[in-house]
Each structure stands twice: as structure tokens, then as C-alpha cells.
Design a protein that fits this description.
By secondary structure, the chain is an alpha/beta fold. Helix content is 43%, strand content 17%.
Length: 296
Amino acid sequence: MAQVSVVLIFLDAERFIGEAIDSARGQSLSDWELILVDDGSSDESTAIAKRAAEADPRIRYVEHPSHANRGMSASRNLGAAQGTAPYLAFLDADDRWEPNKLAEQVALLEGDGELALTLGALLYWYSWDPAAVEPDRLVLTGGIADRRLEPPEAALQLYPLGTGAGAGLDVLVRRSAFEAVDGFEERFRGLYEDQAFLLKIFLRYPVFISSRPWLRYRQHDASCCATTTRSPADYRRLRMDFLRWLATYLDRQSTLQPKVRRALWRAQRRLRLEAARDLVKKTLRRLASGGASTRA
């Protein structure tokens, strides 16, 4: 049995998927299995994934029934269910891992049996594109470096409830913890699918946040985050839906988590205020435009 099950989901990712697969195959820790989950692709990425699976017995290709598109959360859950290893890692088809990612994360979890998950800093990767003008940027998750956090401290400190920079999905998580929180929430097909899962872990288990940048987080206009946050109204709608889900989730928990509930209330209040301010600005612009037309 492999030590780490790596789940790589993809949808029409022919431009980058080969590089992502290579970064998993290039790990210094070789005891892994790679599950390539096709979320209904219609481009060449399906063929690329199948060729990779044929070439390496550690790699498997899976898809939803009828080659359906089920979204990111359902695809991650499918991949996790196909794996057998005690640790789980997740890789997006447009990102790339550093070679020591798995080895260093496994060492951290094996060094502290109480930790459910470890993650690191994010390298916002612009330089992959020779035409990029913005430099690469390293961001410490929550401004935290090499520290263990007890529950629910990470939930309170990191976005989307806290003010610290949010976590990426450069995680290594124990399968036992993943299964205990029921994995990813399949209602979230894109934005917030990672944050919903991470919050469930943060609320229940100790985690370790490293200063190591294990992931090159590729920045491009076609990424899920870029395409779903271009409209402030769409972003607020998706964020409010996430916060409503969290309120319902907390209601189902056996512990009250009063600090988390207060943080949730503050996040909802900020969002409502932002929406109200935008509505006032739009109204004033419309009135100004109408007034100018009348005077003309």
C-alpha cells in the first residue's frame, strides 16, 4: 500500500496537466499513488491523463459515470475514495509541487501523531508566463510560520472567518481525519470548496502551518478563482452562501463553538455592509447620470 494517495482533479486542463503530473512523479518521496480524476473534460487532457496512467502503474485514471461534470468537491471525494493510503494530498491541474513536498509533510505528521493536517505558505506564481509583469509573491498562510494551532484557532485566524491570508490546498491530511469530517462538501462545485473542507478540519483537530512554500500556485485568467470573482456581486453571493452553510454546519455540531459563531456573525455583518455600500454607490451613480442627461 502506498504511503500517500495524491488526488489530481482536472477539467479541460490540457495546457497545464502534464506539468502537474510531472511534479507529482518528481517527488523525492516515491511511495505514492496518483489518482487522476476527470471532471468531464472535452479537450486533450483526458488523453494526456490516460497516457500517464498507462505509462506508470502508480497512476490511475477515473471519471464520473457517463463522463459527467460533477464539480471540484465531488471529484476530490471520488479520488479520495479510490485511494488506499493513510495520507491524502490534493493537486490542481494548473499548479505544481516542489520536489520535497510530500517527504517533508509526511515527516511533520509522523512526528506528531495528534496532527490531522499540515500546510505551508503559498507562492503566487506569475513567472511561469514569460510575458508576466507581476513578480512572484510568497504569502505566509495567516502570517503564521512553523506553528501548531489547536482547534479552532486556525478557523478564527485565517480567511474566510479571520483576517489572515487564507490557506491553500497544499495540504497533507490523515485519511482518518478526512473521513471523519466527510471530506469535501459537494454543494460547493468551485469557489469555497477547499475552505469548507479546511474549516471542518480546523474546528476539530490540531494542525501545523509551515513557512515552507510547497506549492507553486499558478496565476492565470482561466483559473477557477479568477473566473468566479470578477463580479463583486457574484463573489458576495458565493461568500454568503458559504457563510450560510457554515451556520447550518455549526448548528449540527455537538459543541457550541461560541468564538466561531461570533466570528461568523462578524463576517456576515461585513458582507451585508459591503453590499449596502455598493448599492448606495450604484444608486448615486445612476442618479448622477440621470441628472446629467436632464440638464443636457
